[in-house]
Amino acid sequence: MSPSFPCCKVLFKKRLRRQQRERQNMFGLAQSKFLNSIRIWGFGNSMTNIVTIQGQRPLNAGVPWDAPASNQSFSTRLTWRSRWSKFLGRDAEMAELRNWANTPQPCSICIIEADGGYGKTRLAAEFATALQVEKKHNGQCWQTLWISQLEDFSESLSLQWGKGHVLVVVDYPEHSPDRMALLLRCVASTAQALGHETNQKNIKRLRLLLLCRQSAPVKTLLERNDCNAYTLQQPLQLQALPEISALALLYESLPIEKQAWVTAPENRPHLTQWLNNSPLHSTPLFLAALALCWSEQAQAVWHTGSPLLQAVIEHEAKHWSRAAQGQGMNPVEGEHAMMQVHAFATLMSGLDHGQLQLLAHSWGWTSQKHKQVLNALGQVFPSTSNKINFASAKAYSPMQPDLLAAQLLVHWQSIRHPAQATASHIHFDHKGHDAQALHQLLTTLEPVHAAPLLQRWNMLCYDQTVRLQTADQLENWLITVLQPPFGTEKQAHIWRNATTTQTTWHGMPRLAVVLSQPQGIQTTDQSSDDAVISARVQRAQELNKHAYFLANSGARENALTVAQEAVDIYLDLLQAQPQTFRPDLAQSLRNLAARWSDLGQHENALDNAHAALNINRQLHQAYPQSFAPHLAANLGDLANYMSALGQRENALAAAQEAVDIFRLMAQKNPNAFEKDLTGYLSNLANRLSELGNHEKALPVAQEAIDIRRRLALEQPHAFEPDLAASLNNLAILLIKLGQRKNALALSQESVTIRRRLAMAQPEAFEPVLARSLKNQAELLSELDERENAMELAQEAVGLYQSLSNRYPQAFSEQLVNAQRILHRLQNTSPLSIPPNL
Q1: CB-based contacts of 218: which residues, under 8 Å, 6+ apart?
Q2: 321-334 pLDDT, tens digit each
Q3: No. of H helices and E strands in the chain?
Q4: Long-range contacts of range 51-55, CB-CB < 8 Å, 24 or more positions apart?
Q5: What is the DSSP letter of 600?
Q6: Could you give phi then psi for residue 663, rounded to 5 degrees?
Q7: Average confidence (pLDDT) over 779-784
Q8: How many CB atoms lie within 10 A of CB 247?
C-alpha cells in the first residue's frame, strides 16, 4: 500500500463532501419563489448530469423512473414511472424515434401524439433510456432533461453542455403555451449556436420530444416562434396495440399461475370480444388494469371500460382504509379523507404543503387528523413522506394515468352526495366543504397557472363524458364553484382570459360559458376618450368569444343577443375611427350571421354575411396576404346560407372561390390551413351534388374525408365531429350514385361517432345525430332492412321533436321530413302535417 493513500483518502472524502454540498445548494428546493435558470452541464466522458434549479420544483436529469418496490399500490403500478408492465408492441415507433435522434440536423423537434392510456410517456421514457444504454455500444453520449410541468418556468432558461447530445422531453406542452414559447426560444438560440459547428466531425445534437394529446396547438405555437432554427419531424401518432401485442402484454403482466388464462382456447373468444368492445381495451393502460384485477380473482372477470378502472379505484380505497386504520383512524373516515386529498391533488395538478394545510382547515380537520392522514398517505405512497417538509415542493401528486384520474373523480363525485350514503357509512357533508375548499385554492392561484388548470379540467371532463361515457358530474360541480360572483374582478378577469386561450372546450362547454362572461364597461366621467374606446373594444371582443361558447353549448338565443351587442359596439366605434375597426366589424358580422343561421334565420344570416364580405373584399384588395383567410372563410359561410335559401348556382360559385383561396394557402403552410381546407372541400362537394354534379363532387368529398380521417387519428378531441360530418355527407353522395352498401358503412360510422358525442354534449350534437339517424334510416329502407330503419327513424323523430319544441324555426322542417320517413316505414295512413309546419 502506498504511504500516500491515507492522505488521498482524506482528500477524496473532502472533495466528495464539497461536491455534495454544491449539489444541495444547486437544488435549493425552498430558496426561491421562481425558477430563474436551468443549466445542463456535461463533465468529460462521464457526462454527469447536474441540473441547476432555483424554484418551486426540481427538474429531472435523466428519466425519473420509480425505484422498484414490493408494496406498490395498483394505481402506482399503472403509472409509466413504475415500469411494472412489459414494454411491448412499439418496435416500429422506437425505430422511428432512433432514426430521428440520429439524423444529422443539429436541432430537431418531434411530437408524440395520443390520447391518455396509449403509452406515449412510457414510449418516450423507454426511448430516452435506450439512448443511455446504446452509448456503451456506439460511443454516443446522450443526456436527458425530463420536464413534467412547464408552468414552473420563469423568465430565463439556458442549455449548455460539454461533449455529447441532449434529449429534452416535455409532457403536455399545450397546457402551458407561454412557458413552451420560452423553451422554444432557448431551443432556437441553442440551434443557432450548433449551426456554426456543422463542419465538425462529431457535431452535438439537441432533440426536443413533445408529448401531447393534440398536436394542432403545439404546431401553432411552433409556427409563432423561430421555425427556421430547427427541423420539425412528422408527428408520431400512437394507435391501440394490435391484437397479438395486446395479448402478449396481458400475458406478461399476469402472475405466472394465471398466464394460462390468456392461452386457454376457451378464453380466446372472450379475449377477442373484450378487445373489440372498445378501442380503449387495446391500450397499454387497460390491458395492465385487467391484469391487475385478474391477479386477485379466482377466475377471469371481464370488466369493460369505466367499470374496469372503477375496480382499480375500489382496490385502492381498501389500501387507503387499512393505512388510515393503522394510524388509529376510523377506517371509513380515513378512506374518505384520503379520497379527498387524492381528488384535490388530481384537480389541482398536485398539492403543496401550504395547500394541504388550507384544505385541512376548510374541511375542519384537527391537527391530529391532519397528521394521521399525512402519515397514512406516506405509508401508501412512501415517496410522499419525503416531500411534505418542503413548503415549496408539491407534497402530493395527482392520480395517474389520466384516465384513472378521471375515474377517481367519478368515484369521488358519486360518494360526495348524501343520498348515496349507506347506513354503514359515516355521513360526510362533502358538498359545502369541498366547494369552499376549492374556492379558496383557486382564489390564491397564481395567474400563470389558470390556463394550464383549465386545460387539465377540460381533459378530465372529456375523459369522463366521452371516453369513459359517465355522467358530467365534475363539470356541474365546477360550475357551482366558479359561478359568478367568483372572487374579485381581477380574479374573474384572469379566468376569463384563460378561457379564451382556445376556441372550443370539448370537455366542459358549459363551464366555458360561465368563465367567459364579459365584464361591464368600467369608465367614469373623468375617463379619457381613449380609455372609453379601449373599454368598449375589450367588451366587444369578450362578447364575440362568449357568443361562440354559448352557441357551442346549445344556448342559441342567448348567443344571438350577445353577438348582436358586439356588432352594435363596433358600428358605433366605426363612426369615429372607420379604418381602425373595419376588420373587427367584419368578424363580428360573420359571428352574428352564424348565430342567425343556428336559429334557422338564413335570410338574416345572408344579409350579415354579405355586409362582412363587402368589408373583407376591400381589405383583401389592400392587404391580400393578411386577409385571404378571412375572405375565404366569409365566402364559405355565404355559400352555406345561399344553399339553405335555394340559391344553388351562387352558392357553388362562392364555395369554389373559397376552396381556391384555401388550397393556395394550404400548399404554402399545410399545418396552419389544411384543417380549414377540409371544411371548404366538404362545402364544395355538397354544392356540386345539389346541382346534380355527383361524379364531380365525389373526388372532392373523398379528399376532404381522407384529410379529416388522418387529422381525427391525430387529434380525436378536435376532429371527430368534423370527420362524422364528412362521413355523413359522403354517404349521402354515394346513395345518389347508387353505391348503397358503401354508403351504409360510412353512415354507420358517422352515427357511432355522433351518438358518442351526443351522450357527452347533447345540446351541441343532438341536431347532427338526428340528421345522421334520418339519413341512415332512409338508406336502410332502400336496402329492405325495414325493422332497423324504423328503429332509427323513431329515434330521429324523437330527437327532432325535442329540438323543434325548443327551436321551432330551425328544426320544424327536419321534424316533418323524419315523420314522413317513419310513416312510410310504418305503412300507415297518410301523415297529416299541421299547416303551420
Answers
A1: 111, 173, 174, 180, 210, 212
A2: 888 888 888 888 88
A3: 34, 11
A4: 51/26, 51/145, 52/26, 53/26, 53/27, 53/28, 53/29, 54/28, 55/152, 55/154, 55/392
A5: T
A6: -65, -40
A7: 85
A8: 20
